[in-house]
Design the sequence.
């Protein structure tokens, strides 16, 4: 287990996959680009739920569900238009808000691909 900014605990080598990943950035764009703190090991078509805390801004994206397109080992695009959302920013200074960790949680996969079911990602 690793500590992210002394506020988030993450597993670098999760037991199960695809696994929850800590979000380190979200762009304001027609197809929101999400950057994760570590390699995500997701595949195109994975469906994720996004959890964003009040401390990080961009509350409009919180709890949204979307399929993704992988763009690199630690980035992917979503089908969410975040162009007019408040900017995402992880607080630098300690905050009165306890929870500053934001997560991408895989919840499924588009049935026309089913790649994760045949690809060993562990």
Sequence:
């Amino acid at each position: 287990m690793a500590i992210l900014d002394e506020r988030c605990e993450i597993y670098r080598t999760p037991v199960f996959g695809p696994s929850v990943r800590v979000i380190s950035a979200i762009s304001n764009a027609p197809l929101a680009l999400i950057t994760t703190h570590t390699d995500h090991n997701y595949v195109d078509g994975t469906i994720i739920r996004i959890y964003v805390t009040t401390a990080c801004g961009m509350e409009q994206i919180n709890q949204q569900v979307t399929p993704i397109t992988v763009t690199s080992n630690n980035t992917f695009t979503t089908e969410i238009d975040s162009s007019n959302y408040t900017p995402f920013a992880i607080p630098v200074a300690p905050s009165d808000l306890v929870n500053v960790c934001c997560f991408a949680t895989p919840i499924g996969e588009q049935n026309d691909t089913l790649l994760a079911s045949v690809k060993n990602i562990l």
Observations:
- Strands lie at 2-4, 8-10, 21-26, 33-36, 46-51, 65-72, 75-78, 103-109.
- The CA atoms of residues 28 and 83 lie 5 Å apart.
- The domain at 15-109 is CATH 2.40.30.180 (Elongation Factor Tu (Ef-tu); domain 3).
- The longest strand covers residues 65-72.
